[in-house]
């Protein structure tokens, strides 16, 4: 079933991994600092390599080969996780980048989509272990359909990210991060097209299972000659359930030195995601943030006669707020109303929302995004943009 | 039919014109420069007046009364135009702001949504003249259903914008702009729920009709005591047809001095909207812009294995480009792909797109907007933002 669903998704996303080989006039994009390099010792066969350019110091540059973005070798496979909760997908990938930044500095390393684990490899790993698939990282099907007796699918997604360094005008692999996403709830069907049932997986059980799998993954990766001698970071992510209004979080990561074949130790991560306004009976790690948000929300909701919702996703590290994504849904408004509203939000956000962390505010209507504001962690004022058309 | 449709729209948009009277703690938003004023000679009954704050010098600040945005008295009515081509709506309103900026400086004037023409007044004006509605600005129904013999509905929308100045801590009306939107195509039905037919209205015929109507509108406005002695700008807009990928344009405007009851002269506007890539057989006012866009498009389309569309709306004044809204539609991509793509766009947009005019680039997938870039006219680099979630 799982396999069936995953394959459908893969098909739907059309993995066009093979990069077209049409050579392009690359010098055309030469405005980038350090962005034109030959790939390897003068080999013009593979075409030249470029970098995407860096928007801010906090972002990695990406790799372009022969004018095409170097897409992941297992592109689409890890996207299987978007079946239920679309937040998980963005959260898993950008969370992997954040974990990687702890180890691979954005000043020194260049980001490349995973090139070493192929689509079929990752698919087999994500499947259950079976006679036909002895590399499956998920447990054998024990035949039970009972939520508590069956073996759940623990590992829902696995993704590779490569970190390159530049030397003598050549990019070489200098680090790899592998993300392993474990389910908090395994959704399954007893019969095709039937009702969906759930097996809950505790945080502890998921983490323990993923740690064991991480060891296996590390050993297998070391068997590839290109990966034998690079540092490999493995990060474990816990997926949010399908009804969650925010994605999952990373629970732990391990740094494995070049050549290491067993994971020695894990660094625990105290990430927690919260949705504001906090549901009754629940609480935010920091009550000041919750009341800041409530003040903001009530100010903003009074602006128009009708405003359908002000919510936010907040991420914490322990009790410390890391950032906030605010979403405002409006009924239809005129362009002048959106302009005025956005100006007002600029003041209200600065006045009420927590300081010192990155925050963005997105204003959407049924016609899509109307305007948006953002402030980086070090800034005081929110920058804003109102979407317009001619 | 027209009336029926318009009324439905009005209903759908729920005109909640009456402002709630709950007084709010306004000092809470006092961070604005010049943003707290009492409205009038110490009258605390009506509550205090605030401004929204100004994002840039090029934008007007808006008026907030008692914590609520001062919405238009005819809110929703002019929205009837969104029935067919949603671009018209934004284009009409932001175009009115642009025409107003020629007359009422954003440094001196504050924007207020129209407060003098009520919803029912505007509705009657937009209807056909008839026994029950002698104020209708559209011609009588002559009974014909033939596209060429019937009297078309010329005027599709009418909107008022107020421009205030501040003196002794008090805002007072110092100018009004009225936009009159004429159809290029009048869509009508011969029977309810029947097929839609079209009466085409030439640019010249639409302009002539609107100029006559403008005179009537000016006279009627002067009958209101508050509008007797303020400058009134009347601007004539030509709606794009429903199948257009860009909105309409303003054809002309007139500046009428305080007290003037007839429109003396009109200033023609050479606005033209173009969609890039230009359709075969058509041409852009400036072929350099067209080839710039084509270069940009082909560079960008090579980035990913599949990219569904790169288009742009461009606005010209005569042969001079005024700005561009670029839209890129992607298939689903992963978050890291969107980050890299946006970095790449930052370079490619700077390299290929025309300089010296405001440009923004919006990247959307079926999940909505993924990232966006923008550059003001005086800037060299594009600022970018990738939408993310936790």
Automatic annotation (TrEMBL), chains A, B:
Composition bias, kind Polar residues: at what positions? Answer: 68-85
Q: Signal peptide position in this chain?
A: 1-27
From start to end residue, where is composition biased (Low complexity)? Answer: 36-56
User: Bias regions of kind Basic and acidic residues — which residues?
Assistant: 142-151
Keyword field: Signal
Q: Which parts of the chain span the membrane according to its record? A: none
Q: Give a Pfam family name.
A: CamS
Question: InterPro entries given for it?
Answer: CamS
What superkingdom does the record give?
Bacteria
Residue ranges, annotated region (Disordered): 36-85, 129-151
By what name is this protein known? Answer: CamS family sex pheromone protein
């Amino acid at each position: 079933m799982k396999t069936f669903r995953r394959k459908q998704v893969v098909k739907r996303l059309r993995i066009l991994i093979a990069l077209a080989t049409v050579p392009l006039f690359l010098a055309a994009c030469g405005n980038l600092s350090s962005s034109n390099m030959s790939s390897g010792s003068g080999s013009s066969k593979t075409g030249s390599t470029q970098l995407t350019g860096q928007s801010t110091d906090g972002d990695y540059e990406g790799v372009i080969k022969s004018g095409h973005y170097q897409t992941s070798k297992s592109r689409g496979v890890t996207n299987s996780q978007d079946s239920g909760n679309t937040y998980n997908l963005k959260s898993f990938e950008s969370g992997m980048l954040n974990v990687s930044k702890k180890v691979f500095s954005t000043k020194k390393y260049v980001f490349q989509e995973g090139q070493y684990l192929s689509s079929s490899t990752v698919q087999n790993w994500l499947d259950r272990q079976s006679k036909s698939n002895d590399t499956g990282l998920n447990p054998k099907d024990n035949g039970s359909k009972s939520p508590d007796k069956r073996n759940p699918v623990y590992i829902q997604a696995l993704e590779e990210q490569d970190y390159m360094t530049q030397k003598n005008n050549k990019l070489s692999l200098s680090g790899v991060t592998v993300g392993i996403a474990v389910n908090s709830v395994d959704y399954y069907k007893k019969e095709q097209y039937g009702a969906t049932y759930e097996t809950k997986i505790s945080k502890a059980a998921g983490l323990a299972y993923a740690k064991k799998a991480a060891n296996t993954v590390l050993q297998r990766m070391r068997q590839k000659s290109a990966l034998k001698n690079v540092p490999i970071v493995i990060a474990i992510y816990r997926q949010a359930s399908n009804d969650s209004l925010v994605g999952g979080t990373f629970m732990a990561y391990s740094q494995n030195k070049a050549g290491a074949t067993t994971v020695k130790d894990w660094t625990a991560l105290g990430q927690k995601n919260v949705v504001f306004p906090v549901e009754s009976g629940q609480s935010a790690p920091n009550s000041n943030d919750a009341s800041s948000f409530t003040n903001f929300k009530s100010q903003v909701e009074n602006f128009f006669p009708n405003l359908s919702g002000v919510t936010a996703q907040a991420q914490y590290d322990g009790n410390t707020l890391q950032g906030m994504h605010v979403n405002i849904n409006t009924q239809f408004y005129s362009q002048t109303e959106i302009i005025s509203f956005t100006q007002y939000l600029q003041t209200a956000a600065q006045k009420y929302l927590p300081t010192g962390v990155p925050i963005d505010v997105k204003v959407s209507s049924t016609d899509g995004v109307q305007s948006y504001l953002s402030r980086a962690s070090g800034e005081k004022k929110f920058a804003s943009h109102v979407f317009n058309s001619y």
